[in-house]
Design a protein that fits this description.
The complex is a heterodimer of chains A (299) and B (219).
Chain A (H helix, E strand, L loop, with lengths): L2 H19 L1 H36 L4 E5 L5 H12 L4 E7 L1 H19 L8 E6 L4 H12 L4 E6 L2 H42 L1 H9 L4 H44 L11 H30 L1
Helix pairs in contact in A: 1-8, 2-6, 2-8, 6-8, 6-9, 8-9
Chain B lengths: L1 E8 L8 E8 L4 E6 L5 H8 L7 E6 L2 E2 L8 H5 L2 E4 L11 H12 L3 H14 L15 H13 L5 E5 L7 H16 L3 E5 L12 E6 L2 E5 L1
Parallel strand pairs in B: 3-8, 3-9, 6-7, 7-8
Antiparallel strand pairs in B: 1-2, 1-4, 4-5, 9-10
Helix pairs in contact in B: 3-4, 3-5, 4-5
The chains are: A alpha+beta (299), B alpha/beta (219).
């Protein structure tokens, strides 16, 4: 083993000793860090899940074309012909006014429908455009509005855009929260390491007199901060996993009541690794700030 | 090996320190530094180990100008100086073996070699087989021996001690003095600050006497 590895191995051993000296304190610090990380991590995971649901919907935006009343078969046929000539459409479904009324009746409004003297509903086309560009959908809707015999065009993606905007807002809020809590995590580690430096002052002073470099003194504390952060990251992961497990069934039940099938997803391995890496780096940063300050003061 | 050239050291507030001290200690020499309390013995030793920097003059240790040494280079100077302090300063949460091992851990010695060296150092100071004991289970004299083993385990070329027999009874003090004489015999440059220089008479050491920060007599 070369000198560098031997120094690192020795420092890791001393870092574990640092943590083991006060096991309860180390555990509590890991839990505090874990809770701080779990809040934004859990929030962002929920938003990702929400985005997945909305993403599924927004991938299939619909444009509804309602024909003018009274029904004009020629105008309807002309619109159908024009739609057939457009390459930008993925699917076109014609909903005759009789079918629309039948659907209304089947949807629980049978009494209302039976009281109607005549069918008030127009013929309609439900169109699934290709692509995912909201601007193109708006342009397409404007084209349809200009066609003769078309009374109203409804673009169904507006609410999806609003939800996307809400999700983006939520993501920004959680990112801001994450930044604030990351700073808190650095402060917590800074303080933990500062206390350890104080309790090991005698050892540090003796080590200096025996020829210890700043790096020798710094190394175990950096590992301690990193291990503390890593432990906090693990706690955060467990908390998020427990939260997802607890919410999975109620969310699935809610989705089923809306006729949908949806299940909350656990964080992916890559996300877990990112969480652990971020926690370790923040722990390292807090420890580095603390030990460097101590060394500056000692100098 | 060690040279002081018109060295002064003034502490903030004007307490203690050194004034215009000059002397030269050759390689392998044994010197005893004596003087009353507050005469400046500890200050002089601190300058050798770069714990303090001179206010004026030049301190040279092993060819290095201590006053001009960058902060990052100080640890490497100290690795060549075995330092025995007035307060024994063993780490109380580690056993004797681990305490003596510390300088070798600092320099990153391979564990097997380090272990051999620690055993040899403990044997040299008469603590063979006591490595697993905790410092507080040792007598004052044994603790001082452990501190000496820690100071010499790295095989330094200079051994500096500040009142190593201060808190010991006469028998223990004689043993410790004999240890320093044996290191001198082995070729190590030894400088011992002590209030009882007669302990070293047997080795006919060089005698340096400090008085109110000045080196009054060099014999």
């Amino acid at each position: 083993m070369n000198g560098w590895l031997r120094h690192q191995a020795s420092a890791i051993g001393r870092a574990f000793r640092n943590l083991a000296r006060n096991p309860l304190g180390s555990l509590l610090t890991a839990i505090v860090i874990g809770i701080a990380l779990a809040l934004p991590a859990g929030g962002l995971l929920l938003l990702d899940n929400a985005n997945r649901v909305v993403g599924d919907v927004s991938e299939k935006p619909e444009i509804s074309i309602f024909m003018a009343m009274p029904p004009d078969a020629a105008a309807t046929a002309e619109v159908e012909r024009r739609l057939a000539g457009l390459d930008s459409l993925e699917a076109v479904r014609f909903v005759p006014r009789e079918e629309a009324l039948a659907q209304l009746s089947a949807g629980g409004l049978q009494d209302v429908v039976s009281d109607l003297a005549e069918n008030p509903l127009p013929d309609a086309f439900v169109i699934a455009p290709r692509g995912n560009d909201p601007g193109a959908f708006d342009a397409l809707a404007a084209t349809f509005r200009s066609w003769p015999g078309v009374h109203h065009v409804q673009l169904d993606s507006a609410w999806v855009e609003r939800i996307h905007a809400l999700i983006d807002l939520g993501r920004q809020a959680f990112t801001l929260l994450a930044a604030i809590l990351a700073a808190a995590l650095v402060v917590v580690t800074f303080n933990t390491i500062r206390l350890q430096l104080m309790t090991q002052r005698a050892e540090i002073e003796v080590s200096r007199l025996l020829g210890a470099t700043d790096n020798f003194i710094r190394r175990p504390f950096l590992w301690t901060g990193m291990l503390q952060g890593l432990a906090g990251g693990l706690v955060a992961w467990l908390l998020v996993a427990a939260m997802v497990a607890a919410l999975r069934d109620p969310v699935a039940t809610l989705a089923t009541s809306y006729g949908a099938s949806f299940s909350l997803g656990q964080p992916a391995m890559q996300e877990v690794m990112t969480l652990l890496a971020v926690a370790a780096v923040l722990g390292f940063a807090g420890a580095a700030l603390s030990v460097d300050r101590h060394l500056r003061e000692a100098a | 090996m060690i040279e002081f050239d018109r060295v002064s050291l003034h502490y903030p507030g004007g307490q203690g320190g050194l004034s215009d001290v000059s002397f030269r200690l050759a390689r392998g020499e044994l010197a005893v530094l004596s003087g009353h309390s507050g005469a400046g013995k500890t200050s002089l030793l601190k300058l050798i180990a770069a714990i303090e920097r001179p206010t004026a003059g030049r301190v040279t240790v092993g060819g290095e100008d201590v006053g001009a040494l960058p902060r990052q280079a100080v640890p490497y100077l100290r690795r060549n100086i075995g330092l025995v302090l007035q307060e024994i300063r063993l780490l109380l949460d580690r056993n004797v073996f681990e305490n003596v091992m510390l300088p070798l851990t600092i320099t990153g010695h391979p564990p097997a070699d380090a272990s051999r060296r620690v055993q040899a150092a403990l044997e040299r100071v008469g603590l063979a087989g006591r490595g697993k004991e905790m410092p507080l289970s040792l007598s004052g004299g044994e603790q001082q021996r452990a501190a000496i083993a820690r100071a010499v385990v790295n095989k330094p070329s200079i051994l500096v001690a500040d009142e190593p027999t201060a808190h010991l009874d006469a028998a223990y003090a004689g043993d410790i003095a004999a240890l320093f004489r044996s290191f001198h015999t082995a070729g190590v440059t030894v400088l011992v600050a002590t209030h009882d220089s007669s302990l070293f008479d047997e080795a006919s050491p060089r005698r340096l006497v400090m008085d109110h920060g000045q080196l009054r007599e060099v014999a």
